[in-house]
Amino acid sequence: MIRYSAFYRLLFSLILMVLAETSFSQGTDSKPVDHWVDSVFNSLTPDERIAQLLMLRAYSNRDQAYVEEFTTLVEDLKPGGVCFFQGGPVRQAIVTNRLQSVSKTPLFVAIDAEWGAGMRLDSIAWFPKPMTLGAINNDSLIYEMGAEIARQLKRLGVHMNFAPVADVNNNPLNPVINARSFGENRFNVSSKAGMYMKGMQDHGLIAVAKHYPGHGDTGKDSHYTLPSINKSRAELDSVELFPFRHLINLGIKGVMVSHLMVPALDSADNAIATLSPLVINDILRKEMGFKGLVITDGMDMKGLTDFSDPGLVEVDALKAGNDILLLPVDARKAVLNISRAIDSGIISMDLIDQKCRRVLTWKFESELAAFQDIKVENLTRDINSREAMLITGKANAEAITLLTDPGHLIPLTSIDTLKLASLVIGDTLVTPFQEMLSVYAPVVHFNLPKDPTWQQCDSVRKLLSPFNLLIVGFVKTSDLPQKNFGINRSAASFIDSLSLKIPLVLNIFTSPYAVASFQETENFAATLVSYQDNAGMQELTAQALFGAIPVKGRLPVTAGKDFISGSGLQRNNVIRLSFGMPEQSELSYTGLETIDSIVAGGISDGAFPGAQILVLRKGRVVFRKSYGNLTYSGQNPVKNNDLYDLASLTKILSTTLAVMKLTGEGKMNTDQKLSQYMVPWRKSNKGQLTIRDIMAHQAGLQPFIPFYHKLLKGTAQDSAMIARHYSQSFPVRVADAMYVGQQWHQFVIDSIIASPLAKKREYKYSDLGFILLAEAISQVTNQPLSSYVKHSFYDKLGLTTMGYHPRDRFSINRIAPTENDTVFRKQLVHGDVHDPAAAMMGGVSGHAGLFSDALDVAVIMQMLLQNGRYGGEMLIDSAVVAQFTKVQFPENRNRRGLGFDKPAKPGEPGPTCDLASPLSFGHSGFTGTYAWADPETDLVYVFLSNRVYPDAANNLITQKNIRTRIQEVIYKSVIK
Asked: What is the model's pLDDT at position 41?
């Protein structure tokens, strides 16, 4: 073979490009493709024309010695193309550029990427597998996936994808196809394979349907032996060949022929489809009318090598009708064998020339006449697009399939009545599935290894007795039937036995065929199939269980004896917030990214040591992020489930909620005087105040009373009033080693009752009215405010962090500290309420005392956006929500609702950015907190920080408008 210098290779490529461009501009009768094909073809020697029909196996994860050796092979042999397998995107691009630079003729670059480039390359996320996609009803998503895969692969310099798999998997024990198939229904397989193909080919990629004439009903793997399909021709036409006919009619450009024996198509002894003129030339080409490229399955597979003549196998494959010989065992020898066969008259040069021209024609169609180097800069980032993430998330969500639910348990409602436990088998660490379950309700988690011992199972069984619902998940599973899809049979039996003792929901993150491992599905409270075991699918399944997303999937195959293909209960009612991407809720991701720089600036400037931020739109959490640390020491990074002192957010998330509920039930009336509910106050001027005036901050109450002064002697704590240890005389905890008597609760109330009122009823913000309201609520409900809101709201909503007295429920390491109080408590306040009055009252008050993470705050704000309904329950009457969230006294220049703050009029200072609608409502908190909801844009924004750490005088958060600047970014990110 002649070795071309780099100069001549470059010159040759330029000539080809000029010829191609000239042919476009001349306007002759000849097509541009003919000019280019003729010019290239005429430049090739006979051996080089043969080599154009070879596609070699290539890797990008091998060492440099391999790259050099393979480059030499390509330079010398001049093959038609390469097919890449394992490696990485940047490495593959570099190798591709190198190979294209030494190749006399531009190389076809192919890849076996059935679920995207991530199937072969590291650093790239997977799309759902075909079996998963077989469960969805929205085939347009598969078209979008095909289009995105085409974009990814073209960015990688790939021209041909060996997909879609068009096999109908009608054998549950198929060892090689299985999850690679869209299922057992020929119409479903045809439709979905067609959409996948159209998505790729409409966007410039050659799609190759496989494994003709159909590998779905085999019990053997053609990688290792030669399978047989013993069906009649009528049966083959009805099932196996059906999807291929459909794809050919749609214009598929490539078909891969598998190594199978199909006697009904070729009855000769040991006739292999890959080498059969009847199967390819007669049926595929003539009968079915296919005019594209025919490609063999891997020529190095044992299904071919062990059952064919190594000296003639390539020749026989070409004679049978194949155009491209994929992965020849020895490429040099293949060219030599074909050349000798030509010389001996076994095969004609005319046939080689015809196939060479066909290959060159498809190269031109793939724009190889003007090949340019792949740009490796930002390659991995470009491939892992947000569009790919969106498509994957949507498809996974729509695939989840509910098989049994005899009591209509799904979605889970009445959370406050459930004692939930989860059991994951296959992973001894808490999984994403379990973590997401805990987002929606308090759940106790148990884990067992894939192959648990009897003792391990029995230990878990005993621990489950306090619970009334168990959610089970099988993870670390397999696609392979020979591994029982990763389900340990004894573990499955254990779950069967548990279902007789406790209501049980089964979720399997694997093939639906695995359902057959369970014998007691009729006793399960519910059974779900989630098809694939990855973090995204686990999280989506947990969301589906709680009604955050619909359940729409239908089985693509028959699973066991009880569930036929097409089975699947539908649950379309969305009752809780979900988690997703900004684009799903018409928000710009790049717009929201600006939040990072604002928060980073706030931390850098010392406005706060850390923060939690959550953005929720259209019922979906699209931004949930924690920044910085709980203190400036940098030792404790903020996590999403850490707790912050909410300060005055307590007013709307506790007291106001309580009054709203009681108003809706007719137990309170905002136009009634306070004395209606607190008889002892009738003679006081406070008893004459209406609840409406109090909640709108125009009752004339003083803004603040320094109650704690009574506990000090000068600047020191009064030791007669304060004890260092708990006792019956000093039972109320104020801070660490600081306890006071119960009388101080009443002292605070009495002080407010005795305080003067302003003569003019105008808007003046005050904590005092909400302290009084808490007393009235307790009187009406006959229980403390903390108990009432817990049972009436927090438990029903499934909140896991919100509440008073966080130290009683959580590790101190999860609670953000507040002020280093040098005046009253003489210590860093950590885990106790920051507000001094609330602290003196035992940590529970109507104006302060709540702690929470951002998510629980957002759930309540979302419930209010949904007019009081959440989780399938009406918690507050919708008319009451409308009443409380509107401006009450606009004639008094008072912007307030009942409990809720509202935007200021244009040009006036206020609590929001200028883009918040007049319908919006929310509140801010002294400690650096903020929650705002806007019905007009269906938007919730929560900001939590401990800006008072370590000094409450630090007000940079307000001076720099950090919370409202972030709010403005969110509004500007809304896609109109």
From this structure: 98
Contact 433, 424 (CB under 8 A): yes
Using CA atoms, how far apart are residues 541 and 417, in angstroms rounded to an integer? 22
- Residue 62: which region, alpha, beta or left (left: phi > 0; alpha: psi -120 to 50)? beta
Is the model's pLDDT at 159 over the cut of 90? Answer: yes
Amino acid 644 reads Y
How would residue 97 be classed by pLDDT, with cut points 50, 70 and 90?
A: very high
Q: Which amino acid is at 220?
A: K
Cα–Cα distance for residue pair 647/838, rounded to 1 Å: 10
Query: Order of strands, edge to edge, in the sheet holding 254-257?
Result: 293-296, 254-257, 206-212, 160-161, 108-111, 81-84, 54-58, 325-326
| Assigned architecture for domain 400-574 | 3-Layer(aba) Sandwich (3.40)
Share of the chain above pLDDT 70, in %: 97
Q: Checking DSSP bridges between strand 644-645 and strand 851-852, what pairing results, if any?
A: antiparallel
HEC profile for 23-74?
HHHHCCCCCHHHHHHHHHHHHCCHHHHHHCCEEEEECCCCCHHHHHHHHHHH
What are the φ/ψ torsions at residue 158 (nearest 5 degrees)?
-95, 140
Tell me the pTM: 0.94
Asked if residue 225 lies in contact with residue 306, where contact means CB atoms within 8 angstroms, the answer is yes
Residues 6+ apart with CB under 8 A from 365: 33, 206
| DSSP character at residue 375 | P
Q: How far apart are CA 198 and CA 200, in angstroms?
A: 5
Q: Which of 19-33, 362-376, 464-478 has the lowest mean pLDDT?
A: 19-33
- Phi and psi angles of residue 950, each rounded to the nearest 5 degrees, phi first: -90, 5
d(CA 421, CA 479): 27
Per-chain mean pLDDT for the chain = 96
For the domain made up of 44-382, give the CATH fold: TIM Barrel (3.20.20)
Residue 262, SS3? coil
Residue range 125-134: mean pLDDT, rounded: 98
For residue 209, the tally of other CB atoms under 10 A from its CB is: 28
- Write the burial class of residue 711 (CB in 10 Å: 0-12 exposed, 13-18 middle, 19+ buried): buried
For 849, phi and psi rounded to 5 degrees?
A: 130, -20
Domain 594-972 classification at class level: alpha beta
Where do the domains of the chain lie? Answer: 44-382, 400-574, 594-972
**CA-closest candidate to residue 712, choices 821, 637, 606:** 821
Q: CA-CA distance, 283 to 286, in Å (whole number)?
A: 6
CA dist 35 and 404 (Å) reads: 63
Beta bridge partners of 620: 578, 617
Q: What gap in Å lies between CA 695 and CA 898, rounded to an integer?
A: 5
Residues of the chain above pLDDT 90, percent: 95
What Å distances lie between residue 829 and 365, 606, 651, 946, CA to CA?
71, 19, 21, 11
Q: Determine the Cα–Cα distance for residues 596 and 923; give it in Å rounded to an integer.
A: 23
What token pair was written down for 292? 């594209």
> For the purposes of burial, counting CB atoms within 10 Å of the CB of 270, is it exposed (0-12), middle (13-18) or buried (19 or more)?
exposed
- What does DSSP assign to residue 279? I
Cα 490 to its chain centre, rounded Å, is 32
Beta strand 206-212 pairing with 254-257: parallel
Alpha-carbon span 785 to 763, nearest angstrom:
26
Question: Distance of CA 63 to CAs 87, 246, 412, 721, Å?
Answer: 11, 43, 53, 77
End-to-end Cα spacing for the chain: 62
